From TrEMBL:
Name of the protein this chain belongs to: Bms1-type G domain-containing protein
BP GO terms, sorted: endonucleolytic cleavage of tricistronic rRNA transcript (SSU-rRNA, 5.8S rRNA, LSU-rRNA); maturation of SSU-rRNA from tricistronic rRNA transcript (SSU-rRNA, 5.8S rRNA, LSU-rRNA)
Lineage of the species this protein comes from: Eukaryota, Metazoa, Spiralia, Lophotrochozoa, Annelida
Family: Belongs to the TRAFAC class translation factor GTPase superfamily. Bms1-like GTPase family. BMS1 subfamily.
UniProt subcellular location: Nucleus, Nucleolus
């Protein structure tokens, strides 16, 4: 068969013939066939209406309420959290995703891992521990969650717990990832398991949620194509801003540093520490000196805050389609990637790995600069001592102090002796600087570098470090490139000047321009000292970017040629711009003054001249420029002299003036109508016929939001970075350093990089503590009911704390009634003492943070509905009393109150008996003895204090119990205990308990509770009460109708007394035999009746069948 297939000729297309012509003709002819109208019409109006409504509903469901985009131009990295039970493959997934984006491996995962995934997107991968505190903190900061599920086991309790936490705190994007699919041997069972898990995942997240399948692991990695598909889906995800995060700033810490004074630690190793936290600002703008909450530590105040260079910045050029491997950066300091390695007691900087943190060109310069510093044999102080001071640009290098002292000859003698040494030192310094030039790789500079002392550049460098902030080396490189271009332009101009033009002599060309330039050059030499003192850049700060030719000429006036030789200096700084604290960096002369506030202020002591080239202006243009310089005052264009003269010459008549005004009004009205038409047409509110059509409300709202977002971004764009931070704070996307004092030493001692550290900003109102009321519901999966005044751990806002809630239900009249236990499947109110949090914030209640329990740990969820310094929760109280004297509808009650003052407080209050008779409190009894004498009561016991008189709607009995329903205000304990799990060791971190109940303590210590006799159930013995027969008066009986009159039955004749007969034995036998015969007869009659019924029913059926047969014959 293989030989036959090999010998088969390949198919050849026809080059000519009828078939080919037919195909060409059919392609050319575009015949439009008429459609059958009836074939495409809908058959049912209801079905068509239902289909249209379904399509409209589907489109409307896609719409969301538009929100103002408050994100910055350079957004922070997207936080991608990997969550799942232990041994499910979280670390392996992060390693594979990092390798997919960066084409390089990472060995360990500790803390956040930030990478540059594309030209406009950065990702921060974070692994979630199997710890409840970590799950809560990650749900508050994660933008995307990869929820990993072991398909061989199914959904575990940790997955359901995280899903319910995320619904309250985050509502972030969730992607499911199924692993361990290679453990299924049967393909049919695998497909069935996938379907079951997908339906369950859709039920808990939302229908249609994305679920990825990772088939198996090969060489400790997942399949490359599966990871690639997952990475592509992560890259194209769109994220909707959440309300809590868009109104609160926060930082996910990726690096910490203990900057406490070592002397304090040596004196007391348990003293509080000063810690620096590093990370990207997220959410909204972060203000300095504000209060923050460290999740797991407590509330603190920022001592100092500053922005740094972005360690994981975007590439500079975005013209390329994709990123190079050099531009795919990674920054994971806690994992030992990115040049910084964090150990327990030290921080190590690896110089060979710095290129992973920044682009190759910049990091290579710094790395080589460090290597050069290590190889230097002469210190900087020695070079400064050996250098010379030069005050003026045209002055020869030398020492100026000798001129002031007048010892010229001595200095000349000393200079002749030590001249060789100075030349050698100068040559050595020049060689070292040239060596630095070779290391840095700047080949564009052609002039040799000169080493100057710190008197010329050192002070400016110190100011540079303070004012530049996070300006990159790119600004310096751009400035160098601009200067090189200007030098090239000057060279080209000089070459053009020496050329012949139309055969004429060179010196005759452009004599006027040369004269102007020579004048300006002389003027420049006059102001040489001023330009050196104030700098050439001060002149440029006052110029507008869009200047005219005269202003450009003014700018050129202050830029001397001698400054070009001093463009490049060695700058000594304190490492403000370098990540590794670069001691020497290359800078151009244009970056000396940077953005310091002192240099931005206008200098009033110097004069700024503006020079114009009047030779280029015509005479008429000169006249137009100077004609208004000889008069004073302000006037309109209509009041100009020429206009007034023309009006006097024309002298309109009143009719002409009136006609002219009417025409002007008509033209103005037409102009307004045209502007209105153009505006409506441009906005899309006019259709093709010219009629107005309202624009879609959703589109209009989106346009308004987009305009607001653009306005927010453009408000502070023109300001320098330092001033912008002072006005609006640190915007999202900046990499900041926060210094916080008074951190407990246990945080550093038990620091674990795998636990997330979240620094959340607090608003002004959130710094207070008061009574918070939340709309609360017990979770249906929690087995126990929640009891009032039992301690519960809440997660609210950035905080996790323990408090004592009081549960209540609001009645129809608005009263908040306290309840002892939470109701099942119903919402209630929970009031507790805690931090004031904005309304609508989600809250999660946790029974226990221990990880060794198998039960569902979330006890309830809810949201904040009311915040106040006070509250109004009442509890029902029944006051019980008994009557001691009854007179018709009036009764005297005692035992309900203890004094007449209490009775006076409850006068006219409603009371009732157990039988339902309602009454009202009247007055208290002042003299009980007089009362008893009046009613001739034989009561032996004295009347108790607090007795009162009450009236009822009917007469009550002495055995009735009278009670009154009252409400009294309950108190909520002011207990607030933050969860400080980061201060515990790793072994006991997840077992934070806080306050325990008395029942838990007795259970742990096996202590029996004392029994209260009043709480025991006792048998109640109630005697049967006998009531007297009802007696109706005779007069009333006469008036009653007959059916209601009592019926008196006649006297019943008593039964005749029978005499007992004692039978003989023979008589007893006869009577017994007769009874037996009677029984046999009765049974025989019964059987005969049964047989007769059966015979009768059979006979009826025969008759019915015969009748049917007869009826059938008649029909035939």
């Amino acid at each position: 068969m293989d030989q036959i297939n090999e010998n088969k000729k390949p198919h050849r297309k026809k080059q000519a013939g009828a078939k080919l012509n037919k195909k060409k003709n059919t392609k050319k002819e575009d015949v439009v066939k008429p459609k059958n109208v009836k074939a495409f019409a809908f058959h049912s109006i209801k079905k068509a209406e239902r289909a249209v409504r379904r399509t409209a509903d589907f489109k409307e469901k896609k719409f969301h309420n538009p929100v103002v985009d408050r994100s910055s131009v350079v957004p922070p990295p997207i936080v991608v959290a990997v969550v799942g039970p232990p041994k499910v493959g979280k670390t392996t997934l992060i390693k594979c995703l990092v390798k997919n984006f960066l084409k390089r491996k990472i060995t360990t995962i500790n803390g956040p891992v930030s990478i540059v995934s594309s030209k406009k997107q950065r990702l921060t991968f974070l692994e979630c521990n199997n710890d409840f505190n970590s799950m809560i903190d990650i749900s508050k900061v994660a933008d995307l969650v990869l929820l990993m599920v072991d398909a061989s086991f199914g959904f575990e309790m940790e997955i359901f717990e995280f899903l319910h936490i995320s619904k309250v705190h985050g509502e972030m994007k969730i992607i499911g990832v199924l692993t361990h699919l290679d453990s299924f041997g049967n393909n049919k069972r695998l497909k069935k398991t996938k379907k079951i898990l997908k339906n369950r995942f859709w039920k808990d997240v939302y229908p249609g949620a994305k679920l990825f399948y990772l088939s198996g692991i090969v060489n400790e990695e997942y399949q490359k194509m599966e990871i690639h598909n997952l990475g592509r889906f992560i890259s194209v995800m769109k994220y909707r801003p959440l309300q809590w995060r868009s109104s609160h700033p926060y930082v996910l810490v990726d690096r910490i540093e203990d900057v406490t004074d070592p002397e304090l630690i040596r004196q007391n190793n348990k003293s509080d520490r000063t810690v620096c936290f590093y990370g990207y600002v997220r959410g909204t703008h972060f203000k300095n000196k504000t209060s923050v909450h460290l999740a797991g530590l407590g509330d603190f105040t920022i001592d100092d805050m500053s922005y740094l260079n972005d360690p994981c910045s975007f590439p500079d050029e975005l013209k390329k389609r994709s990123l190079d491997d050099r531009e795919r950066l990674i920054y994971a300091p806690m994992s030992g990637v990115g040049g910084v390695l964090f150990d327990k007691d030290a921080v190590y900087i690896e110089t060979k790995g710095i290129n992973l943190m920044s682009d190759k060109k910049r990091s290579g310069d710094k790395e080589k600069m460090l290597e050069t510093l290590k190889n230097m044999q002469t210190t900087i102080d020695g070079k400064m001592a050996a250098g010379n001071f030069q005050l003026f640009s045209n002055q020869e290098e030398g020492d100026d102090d000798g001129d002031e002292d007048g010892n010229d000859e001595e200095e000349d003698d000393d200079g002749s002796e030590d001249g060789k040494d100075d030349d050698e030192n100068e040559r050595d310094g020049r060689e070292e600087v040239e060596g630095d030039m070779d290391v840095d790789g700047n080949e564009n500079l052609s002039e040799p570098w000169k080493l100057k002392t710190g008197l010329e550049e050192n002070d400016d460098d110190d100011d540079d470090d303070d004012m530049e902030g996070d300006d990159d080396d790119e600004d310096e490189e751009e400035a160098l490139d601009d200067e090189e271009e200007e030098e090239d332009d000057d060279v080209d101009m000089s070459e053009d000047d020496h050329e012949n033009v139309d055969g004429a002599l060179k010196w005759k060309v452009k004599l006027r321009e040369k004269g102007n330039s020579s004048f300006l050059e002389r003027l420049k030499n006059i102001n040489n000292i001023q330009s050196f003192v104030y700098g050439t850049e001060i002149m440029n700060l006052h110029d507008d970017k869009s200047t005219n030719d005269s202003e450009e000429q003014e700018k050129e006036t202050y830029e001397g040629k001698d400054n070009k030789n001093n463009d490049n200096k060695i700058k000594i700084n304190d490492g403000g711009d370098d990540f590794l604290g670069g001691f020497l960096s290359l800078s151009d002369h244009n970056s000396r003054f940077g953005s310091n506030k002192l240099f931005h202020q206008e200098e009033t002591s110097k004069q700024l001249y503006a020079f114009y080239d009047f030779n280029k202006l015509d005479v008429q243009e000169l006249v137009e420029r100077v004609k208004d310089c000889f008069v004073s005052g302000m006037w309109d264009e209509d009041e100009d002299a020429e206009t007034l003269l023309k009006r006097d010459a024309e002298r309109e008549t009143p009719e002409e003036r009136r006609e002219r005004r009417m025409k002007a009004k008509l033209l103005e009205r037409k102009r307004r109508q045209k502007e209105m038409f153009d505006m409506l047409y441009d906005e899309g509110r006019l259709d093709g016929n010219g009629t107005t059509a309202d624009k879609n409300y959703f589109e209009t709202l989106k346009e308004e939001m987009a305009q607001q977002a653009q306005l927010n971004r453009s408000e502070f764009e023109s300001l320098p970075e330092s001033a912008r931070v002072e006005f609006e704070g640190f915007r999202p996307g900046l990499y900041v350093r926060m210094q916080i004092r008074s951190i407990p030493c246990e945080f550093i001692e038990y620091f674990d990089p795998t636990y997330p550290i979240v620094v959340g900003g607090l608003l002004t109102s959130e710094q207070n503590i008061g009574y918070v009321t939340v709309n609360f519901k017990k979770h249906r999966w929690h087995k126990k009911v929640l009891k009032t005044n039992d301690p519960v751990i809440f997660s609210l806002g950035w905080r996790r704390f323990q408090t004592i809630p009081v549960y209540s239900i609001q009645d129809h009249n608005g009263r908040n009634r306290q309840i002892k236990y939470t109701p099942n499947h119903l919402h209630c109110h929970a009031t507790f003492w805690g931090p004031i949090t904005p309304q609508g914030s989600g809250i999660v209640a946790i029974d226990s943070l221990a990880s060794n329990t198998k039960e569902f740990r979330i006890s309830g969820t809810g949201n904040v509905c009311e915040i106040d310094k006070s509250f109004a929760i009442v509890k029902k109280l029944k006051l019980v009393g008994t009557p001691f004297l009854i007179h018709q509808n009036t009764a005297f009650i005692q035992g309900m109150f203890n004094s007449s003052l209490e009775v006076a407080k409850f006068e006219l209050a409603s009371i009732r008996t157990v039988s339902g008779i309602r009454g009202q409190i009247k007055k208290s009894i002042k003299n009980g003895a007089t009362l008893l004498k009046k009613f001739k009561s034989k009561m032996a016991d004295p009347i108790l204090p607090g007795a009162f008189r009450a009236t009822f709607e009917d007469k009550i009995l002495m055995s009735d119990i009278v009670f009154m329903r009252t409400w009294y205000k309950t108190s909520v304990d002011q207990f607030y205990n933050p969860v400080t799990n980061l201060l515990l060791s790793q072994a006991s971190r997840d077992a934070w308990r806080g306050m325990k109940t008395a029942g838990q303590i007795r259970r742990e210590k096996n202590i029996k509770r004392d029994v209260n006799e009043d709480n025991l159930y006792k048998p109640i013995a109630r005697p049967v009460r006998e009531y007297k027969p009802l007696q109706i008066p005779r007069e009333l009986q006469r008036q009653l109708p007959f059916r209601l009159k009592p019926k008196t039955e006649g006297k019943t004749v008593g039964e005749i007394k029978r005499i007992a007969v004692v039978k003989e034995p023979h008589e007893r036998k006869v009577s017994q035999m007769m009874k037996q015969l009677q029984a046999i007869y009765d049974q025989k009659r019964k059987n005969q009746r049964v047989i007769m019924r059966e015979r009768a029913s059979k006979h009826r059926k025969e008759i019915i069948s015969k009748n049917k047969a007869k009826a059938a014959k008649k029909k035939r």
